[in-house]
Amino acid sequence: MNLSDRLKTISEMIDNNTKTIVDVGTDHGYIPIYLAKNKKINYAIASDINKGPVEKAKLNIKNHNLENMINCRLGGGLTTVKKNEVEVAIIAGMGGNLIRDIIEDSLDIFRKLEYVILQPVQNPEVLKEYIYSKGYDILDEELVKEDGKFYEIFKVRYNNNIKEIENIYYEISEILLEKKHPVMKEYLSFKLEKYIKICDGLKLNSEGSISRKKELEFKVSKIKEFLECL
Ligand SMILES: C[S@@+](CC[C@H](N)C(=O)[O-])C[C@H]1O[C@@H](n2cnc3c(N)ncnc32)[C@H](O)[C@@H]1O
């Protein structure tokens, strides 16, 4: 089956020795189907809070004859999974705030997982700050551009290791910078243009707008610095 670049990158972040996963908010079920079809895993739970997506996933799984490898479950977040039932969770295609809330609601299960792949659609920096401040290690990161949009993907594991980093790194990944990720230049240029535009349009008629301008100017100078290193 042909997966989009975003879903393929998420699937490729699953280690070869991982045997069991849960895909939270599975919708179409494409990730577990791809992983099972390519023999990357032995067993998956395809879980969704809504009935329609669960029915859609069931049909797709049946069409691929994978009912013996993928179990569909209806319910919110990780509530559909028992402790130690799977090694890994994938939570993709939702807002950063929702992903954070899903993690907070099932901390006992989440912290036992070997690792988790998170792909926020909006507010990735909110999720990143939460992850660092709650003691998770970021094992790896990826960046995908698809249909004109950028998607950050995090691979994380709980380690009770609270880390304080400069705010800018919640938004611009140190790992992607270090990797000199091939999409990073375009991503930074996109952000640079966006912030310069906002800055230019700001009317400096309140304390709030003056401090917003300062904040944006700082980001612009940091992004320029990062671009020089790529
Ligand atoms: C935009 S789709 C993403 C599908 C797929 N994961 C992807 O990345 O392409 C979001 C899915 O998450 C489901 N969802 C939303 N909130 C959820 C929650 N709290 N727990 C589980 N699933 C949820 C929705 O029903 C929907 O099917």
Report on this structure.
The chain has 230 residues and is α/β, with parallel strands linked by helices. It has two domains: 5-163, Vaccinia Virus protein VP39 (Rossmann fold); 184-229. 45% of the residues lie in helices and 22% in strands. The chain contains ten helices and seven strands. It has helices at residues 5-12, 30-37, 51-63, 96-105, 107-110, 124-133, 168-171, 174-179, 184-201, 207-229; strands spanning 20-24, 43-48, 70-74, 88-94, 115-120, 136-146, 149-158. Strands 3-2-1-4-5-7-6 form a seven-stranded mixed β-sheet, with helices on both faces. Strand 2, helix 3 (51-63) and strand 3 (70-74) form a beta-alpha-beta unit. It is elongated, with a radius of gyration of 19 Å. The model has no long low-confidence stretch (mean pLDDT 96). The chain binds S-adenosylmethionine (SAM). S-adenosylmethionine (SAM) is lined by residues 7, 24-27, 48-50, 53, 76-77, 92-94, 98, 102.
Helix content: 40-55%
E-strand count: 7
**N- and C-termini, Cα separation:** 35 Å
Anisotropy-based shape: elongated
* Rg from alpha-carbon coordinates: 19 Å
Spatial strand order of the main sheet: 3-2-1-4-5-7-6
Largest sheet at a glance?
A: 7 strands, mixed
Multimeric organization: single chain
Calculate the mean pLDDT score and round it.
Answer: 96
In CATH's first tier, which class of the largest domain applies?
Answer: Alpha Beta
Structural class: alpha/beta
CATH fold-level name of the largest domain: Rossmann fold
Q: What's the CATH H-level homologous superfamily of the largest domain? A: Vaccinia Virus protein VP39
Ligand identities: S-adenosylmethionine
Number of domains: 2
| Percentage of residues in DSSP E strands | 15-25%
Taking pLDDT < 50 over at least 5 consecutive residues as the criterion, the unreliable ranges are: none
CATH architecture of the largest domain, by name, is: 3-Layer(aba) Sandwich
Question: Count the helices. How many?
Answer: 10
